[in-house]
Amino acid sequence: MNSYRQGWTLRRRVSVLLTVVVTLLIGLAAAEAALAAKTRQNMDAVLVKTGPLRVQGQELLNALLDQETAVRGYAVSADRADLAPYESGLQQEQDTVSRMKALIGDYPDVQRALSVVEQQATDWRTTVAQPVITTTERDGTAAGQALITDQARAQFEQVRASVGTLQAEILSERQRTAAKVYETSNILVVLLIIAAVVVAVAGSVLLLSLDRMVIKPLTGLAQQIREVAEGDYQHRIAGSGPPEFQQLAEDVDAMRQKIARELAEVREARESIEWVNSQLQKQAEELTRSNRDLEQFAYVASHDLQEPLRKVASFCQLLQRRYAGQLDERADQYIAFAVDGAQRMQRLINDLLAFSRIGRLTTGFTEVDLNKVMGDVAGQTEAARQYADAELTWEDMPVIRGEEPLLTNLLANLVSNSIKFRRPDVTPKVRVSARLVDDEWEITCQDNGIGIEPEFADKIFVIFQRLHAKDAYPGTGIGLAIVKKIVEYHGGRVWVDTGTEEGTAIRFTLPALPEDVEAARAAAAADADAVTGAEPAGDATGAVADADGTPEGTAPAVGRQPDGPTGVDSPGTAPEHGTTGGMRETVR
Fold first, then answer.
1. Which residue has the higher pLDDT, 477 or 200?
2. Kind and range of the H or E run holding 569
3. Which of 210-219, 315-324, 427-436, 450-459 has the highest mean pLDDT?
4. CA–CA separation, 429 vs 424, rounded Å?
């Protein structure tokens, strides 16, 4: 049995190899870091110390030459202006020496050479420069020139020679430091080459090991698995290589055995599933056909019922007009009941027909300006608003994609319900607003009417549901069902905001145009404090509508009756507490 089968697993082999390689690389990295630091130190010495020292040495020589030239010129002219270079050269010499002393702390030879230059320069000024200046001032130019002898010139030449020696020492230190840089750089390159060799050798060993311990055993295992996958489920899978692969082969073979046992069951289950799927497909087709027939039935029934209802209503009205007062009071009451029932049935059929048409008869989505839609809604509800002295306001509304007639019907239903379900002796106020929330417009219709209890918030959107008796508020109870269907047809959702303190707020969402979303995000990124101002619309609050489910003859519950614009209060049908007068309409 091989050594790896006795305990040298693939993990152990790879771990040992990686440990050796990592140890070598860490050692090389440490040596390279030390050499890099030394190289950086030497480079700093070359660039920051010896380089500037050479420049400052030349500046020192220039300062001394300026002094010597100024002394000779003064001895000839006796003009104090000629001593200005002497004084400035002396100051420059002192500054240069001060700067050089700050850089030569690590170079004792340079320090000694600089000290020699300082001493010789001081001696020259003491024995030559100052006497010449003093003699010229006292005895004239001839006496001053007499002091500038060959010995004085030789003394200054010694100063220049000392400066040259100083420059030579600086150059020598620079060359020695540069040699150290080259040496450490060469060693660093050698270490990098060694590291590359270590990586290459380790990679080669790893590739060979992987080929022997991983690739070949896996290739054999894969070949056996392919044979099983091709349908030979009785082929036994045997593994080779490291213990991990042998264990893997055993697990795969156990899985093969389990698959072989369950294959027969799967085949039986597949036949059953295929039969069930065929039945489900038939049922789906039947449901599709049934839904289509139901839609057609509702449409045809709505149309076919119109004629007999119109006939019943017409003849009942004729009967009412012709025999009114000729029969007893009970007969007049029965005739009124018949007329009212026929008219209510006509309204129910018309509303049901409108409800069934939503999403079925479509003109296609276009860009719709809700400001224009609100203008149309204001026109449709003008009579009801004048009768109730209602105030309708709306803020700057967005442009969305949808069907304009349906959106007009949607908002008209909400505004009409807000006007209908008003409070006695309170001027009705309806406000429509919009705000951008993520990628949707949240539109709110808010009123100051009778409000709605939270437990009825979902019930009002159910078709033909009423929260009040039909005598309290007229209508068919289908208005908010139409609102919900229109909103969902446009890809939105509608709900009642139960947190409103006064009146009712119905909110619904509509998908926003991509350019509106991008503009809002850009504004938010530019200035987080101006997000609200960047959105095209303000905070969403809105008006609510209702549903009615209270049986006839019982007290009305707090809430609203869903109804379309055709069921809005009119001067002839408004509750007794409504007020007459003008209307107020505001666009913000």
1. 200
2. none
3. 427-436
4. 13
Phi, psi of 585 (to 5 degrees): -135, 125
Q: Are 540 and 507 in contact (CB under 8 A)?
A: yes
Alpha-carbon distance of 335 to 399, in angstroms, equals 50
How far apart (Å, rounded) are the C-alpha atoms in residues 111 and 99?
A: 12
Kindly report the number of other CB atoms within 10 A of residue 256's CB atom.
20
Q: What is the number of other CB atoms lying within 10 angstroms of the CB of residue 212?
A: 12
- The helix (H) or strand (E) run that includes residue 274 is helix 243-323
Cα–Cα distance measured from residue 396 to residue 435, given in angstroms and rounded to the nearest whole number: 10
Phi, psi dihedrals of residue 365, rounded to the nearest 5°: -80, 140
Tokens of 21: 């390689």
Q: Is the pTM of this model over 0.90?
A: no
The model's pLDDT over 104-156, given as tens digits with 9 standing for 90+, comes to 877 888 888 888 888 988 888 888 888 888 888 888 888 888 888 888 888 88
What pLDDT digit, counting tens, does each position of 492-514 carry? 988 888 777 788 888 899 999 88
For the sheet containing 429-437, what is the strand order? 494-496, 505-511, 440-447, 429-437, 391-394, 584-587
- In angstroms and rounded to an integer, the radius of gyration of the C-alpha atoms of the chain is 52
Distance CA 365, CA 380 (A): 23
